Amino acid sequence: MHHPVDSPYRATGPVFVGEGATRRVYRGGGVPPSLAKRSLSLRAYDAKGFLSAATLCHGSDVSTEIDALLEDERTDSLHVHYSAPGCFACLVERQ
């Protein structure tokens, strides 16, 4: 389960973790190569797990889109999905 919340946006599905995957702190401007070359869906959630915003972008623009969504104080976290298959790619948490 990649979004275990008590809201209509609760989500589960297969989550594949690549060999050697590590947790990173996003500081703006840099994303992993696996994200930078694909079309992505970004979903912003508030602290109660409700969707507050969403957008589609190409991976080359993902840093700009992440920064814009995080400017909204309601945004607690972002889910990044590969847009064509809709598979969950990663979580961006507000620090």
Structural features, described:
This is DUF1203 domain-containing protein. InterPro entries: DUF1203. It comes from Salinicola acroporae. The chain is α+β, with helices and mostly antiparallel strands and 95 residues long. It has a domain at 33-93. Helices cover 15% and strands 28% of the residues. It is built from two helices and four strands, in the order H-E-E-H-E-E. It has helices at residues 33-36, 62-71, and strands at 39-45, 51-58, 77-82, 88-93. A four-stranded antiparallel beta sheet has the order 2-1-3-4, covered by helices on one side.
General form: globular
Number of E strands = 4
Order of helices and strands: HEEHEE
Helix content: 10-25%
Sequence of strands across the biggest β-sheet: 2-1-3-4
Kindly, what is the distance between the CA atoms of the first and last residues, rounded to a whole number of angstroms?
22 Å
Tell me the β content.
25-35%
Mean pLDDT: 84
Sheet/helix structural class: alpha+beta
Instruction: Sketch the major β-sheet.
Output: 4 strands, antiparallel
- What is the rounded Rg? 13 Å
Number of helices: 2
Uncertain segments: none
Pfam families: DUF1203 (PF06718)
InterPro entries: DUF1203
Protein name: DUF1203 domain-containing protein
